[in-house]
Design goal:
The complex is a heterodimer of chains A (372) and B (144). Chain A is mainly α. Chain A contains 13 helices and no strands. The longest helix of chain A is centred in the first third of the chain and has 39 residues. The longest helix of chain B is centred in the last third of the chain and has 55 residues. The termini of chain B are far apart. The chains are: A mainly alpha (372), B mainly alpha (144). The interface between A and B is large, with 92 and 79 residues.
Chain lengths: 372, 144
């Protein structure tokens, strides 16, 4: 980063901007560069997550999945599929229904994508590898992931279509219901770590695999993951877009790029949920071998880097939870709507409240291992 | 250029209010990230509309622009009456989300405030649980 700032950004700024704004310009361009370093891989992951989803579900169902579209005349197991899909969607006509509320209809996908990208600002990828190291990190993530509900309800309302409207109502009711359980689970993490800063939350889990919060907060971790599946409207909680009854739910009238923006927002949200679970309950960038192998192993070149803490562990954990999303979708039949609401209100909320009290007792009594 | 101005305005505004440079350097990327997220969303929609117009041979006509109802002609307005339970869920959500907002600061400092803080929040949670049981018994959580 130093090198890029000194050799690329500073000369560029000196050429382009008046001297009065140099420091501002250097800082801004540097930040834009860092943001690009986050957003581009995220969008790439979104594209290939759709491929992974089709492939994984294909294999689970005894099919092959996409295997034709490749590069330079070779199929490469169908790896070109997401790019072909992206181009196809880009060139499709966007239909705005005549009865629709035009401004809101167009604004809805944007309002859905922007927060799901902006939430990445505070995600810590490593010890010092974080764009915005703010103290209110978790609060910010909670706020932005909650904003996703606006995109859904605006889309459903603006389409002026019955399927879209019903889908939006269902989707919003289920999202806000599970947000309570999610919020309580987050409070549990806060009690355990004593900080809203996501980097500090990971640091509080330092030690070994048993020091990670998944063990003392096991019910909260499970509930957080299931709520994450509901929040992103994924199967088996996808009544909001249940194909067999309301076709595609809130985005039934969207096509082309407007639809793919919704799609990207949903997948970006999935990745955020997966990465947050890794950060809050599974030690983020910490290595699972820490505390098991002797410390001297981590000083060995190559092997030490591989087994020691680092961004690669965060990516491994995140990939695992993303795989869980796909696995769950391929395995479970869709829930009935009243079952979803019962699970959220009558099972998850009582469990989270009880376990919150349990965690608080553990913290005030300084229970050994985790909170001493 | 506009982004640089954004940075200058943002910094000057908050430094005048007494916020330190260090804090601003951590919060400015967030503002920039939100702006870039919005710009990305807008540009994708614009590209979609533009390319769709040129390459997609956009020819809107009445049937194509009518809301999708499985091929039938749409009847009635879509802004129909909806179940009051959705409304009830929204109200209950506001109450519980507020409780969570109260729990956040308590959770962060629980280690420092000790037993007094712990019992204060237990009383609060007890009141919350009584309200929750009341809702449950009244049938506000039923979806039959």
């Amino acid at each position: 980063m130093e090198w890029i700032r000194n050799n690329l950004i500073t000369p560029l700024v000196e050429q382009l901007f008046p001297a009065a704004v140099h420091t501002h310009a250097v800082f801004t361009i540097e930040t834009v560069f860092k943001i690009a370093v986050i957003i581009v891989p995220v969008l790439f992951t979104v594209a290939y997550l759709t491929y992974a989803e089709r492939k994984v579900i294909g294999f689970i169902q005894g099919r092959i999945g996409p295997n034709r579209v490749g590069f330079f005349g070779f199929s490469f197991w169908g790896l070109g599929q997401p790019i072909a899909d992206a181009f196809k969607l880009m060139f499709k006509e966007i239909i705005v229904p005549s009865g629709a509320n035009k401004a809101l209809f167009i604004a809805a996908p944007i309002l859905s994508l922007a927060p799901s990208l902006a939430a990445w600002a505070v995600i810590p990828f490593g010890d010092t590898l974080v764009l915005a190291d703010i103290n209110a990190g978790l609060l910010y993530v909670l706020a932005l992931t909650s904003l996703a509900v606006y995109g859904v309800i605006i889309a459903g309302w603006a389409s002026n279509s019955k399927y879209a409207f019903l889908g939006a109502m269902r989707s919003v009711a289920q999202i806000v219901s599970y947000e309570i359980a999610m919020g309580f689970a987050l409070v549990g993490v806060l009690v355990a770590s004593g900080s809203l800063n996501l980097g500090d939350i990971v640091a509080a889990q330092n030690g070994s695999m048993v020091h990670w919060f998944w063990l003392p907060l096991l019910p909260l971790a499970v509930i957080y993951f299931i709520s994450g599946v509901v929040e992103t409207n994924r199967a088996p909680f996808d009544v909001a877009e249940g194909e067999s009854e309301i076709v595609a739910g809130f985005h039934v009238d969207y096509g082309g790029m407007a639809f793919s923006v919704f799609f990207m927002a949903e997948y970006a949200n999935m990745i955020i949920i997966a990465i947050l679970i890794s950060v809050m309950f599974f030690g983020g960038w910490l290595s699972p071998f820490q505390g098991i192998l002797p410390d001297s192993v981590f000083d060995v070149p190559m092997i030490g880097t591989l087994l020691g803490e680092g961004i690669h562990w965060l990516l491994v954990k995140t990939s695992f939870f993303l795989f869980m999303f796909l696995w769950i979708r391929a395995t479970f039949p869709r829930y009935r709507y009243d079952q979803i609401m019962r699970l959220g209100w009558k099972i998850f909320i009582p469990i989270t409240i009880v376990w919150l009290i349990v965690v608080a007792v553990m913290v005030v009594t300084n229970m050994p291992w985790w909170f001493d | 250029m506009y982004l640089v101005c954004l940075h200058e305005v943002f910094f000057n505004f908050w430094i005048d209010k007494g916020v330190t440079n260090q804090v601003l350097e951590n919060y400015f990327p967030i503002l920039l990230f939100i702006v870039i997220g919005l710009v990305l969303g807008v540009s994708m929609i614009v590209i979609g509309f533009g390319l769709g117009k040129i390459m997609g041979h956009a020819r809107p006509y009445k049937a194509k622009q009518s809301p999708y109802e499985c091929g039938f002609e749409a009847f009635e307005n879509a802004r129909i009456k909806f179940d009051v339970r959705y409304y009830l869920v929204a109200i209950l959500f506001i109450i519980f989300d507020l409780e969570i907002a109260f729990l956040f600061p308590w959770a962060v400092v629980l280690d420092e405030i000790g037993m007094a803080g712990f019992w204060a929040m237990m009383i609060f949670l007890a009141v919350l649980v009584v309200g929750f049981i009341y809702e449950w018994r009244k049938g506000a959580l039923e979806w039959e």
